[in-house]
Specification:
By secondary structure, the protein is of the alpha+beta class. The protein contains 2 helices and 5 strands; from the N terminus they run H-E-E-E-H-E-E. It has a single domain, classed as SH3 type barrels (Roll).
């Protein structure tokens, strides 16, 4: 294994749970970097939580009905099964570690 990959992963491990931007060696939109919460790092891949999923539409298990009408308490109805057309699952970005050109993070004081 390349020494620079080991060094990079060791450096990135300190920022698990923090928001970082990772720049890759690829072009196009991916060359602009990926920003998200760093959730895992190993010698093969880096995983970022890039888009947090929506909260449950009806967290108390009701049928989304109530005194406000078919949109329930607080309006949990809508498009796409109650999520207003938003992806309820979020998005995770998986980046090959060998494609990382640089990463940025906030300074910790």
């Amino acid at each position: 294994m390349d020494h620079w990959i080991t060094s990079l992963t060791e450096s990135m491990l300190r920022y698990i749970g923090q928001t970082v931007t990772i720049f890759t060696t690829s072009g196009g939109l991916s060359g602009s970097g990926f920003t998200g919460v760093l959730i895992s790092v190993d010698c093969n891949v880096v995983r970022l939580l890039c888009d947090i999923g929506a909260a449950p539409a009806c967290p108390i298990g009701s049928g989304c009905t109530g005194p406000v009408g078919d949109y329930g308490f607080g309006g949990c109805g809508g498009y796409g099964g109650g999520y207003g057309g938003v992806n309820p699952l979020g998005a995770i970005c998986v980046i090959p570690t060998c494609a990382v050109a640089a990463f940025t993070h906030n300074a910790i004081g």
